[in-house]
Amino acid sequence: MITVIVEFALPKSMSVDEAPTTFLTTAPKDRAMPGLIRKYYFLSEDGCKAGASICGSRDRTQSMFTPRIGEISSAASMGQIRR
Fold first, then answer.
1. Most buried pick, 36, 44, 59, 78, via CB within 10 A?
2. What does 6-60 look like in DSSP terms, one character per residue?
3. Does residue 51 form part of some domain?
4. pLDDT for the residue 59
5. What is the number of structural domains in the chain?
6. Interior CA angle at 80 toward 76 and 83, to 5°?
7. Which residue segment(s) compose the domain that 50 sits in?
């Protein structure tokens, strides 16, 4: 299994209180992704947001995140992503 954690920013027009409702609206799209086992969203009171996707294989993971997976892999190898 492969776990991908991605930090992201909420749109400026969205409050921290509105975020969970928006996360729930993505569930149908997430359920349709082949190879996705589970998806989590994280939201802290200070506004830090992240999503964690657990996938069944590296191939499936790359197909979900390509072309950004290359950018993410490069950033990780350069120490720009926390491990």
1. 36
2. EEEPPPTT--TTTHHHHHHHTHHHHHTSTTEEEEEEEE-TT--EEEEEEES-HHH
3. yes
4. 80
5. 1
6. 60
7. 2-77
Domain annotation covers residue 82: no
Q: What predicted TM-score, i.e. pTM, was given to this entire model?
A: 0.63
> What's the distance, CA 37 to chain centroid?
13
Angle separating helix axes 58-65 and 68-77, nearest 10 degrees: 110
Tokens of 62: 């790359």
CATH number at residue 73: 3.30.70.100
pLDDT in tens, 42-62: 887 767 788 888 888 888 777
User: Amino acid identity of 31?
Assistant: R
Whether residue 35 lies inside any domain: the answer is yes
29 in Cβ contact with 58 (< 8 Å): no
d(CA 83, CA 60): 21
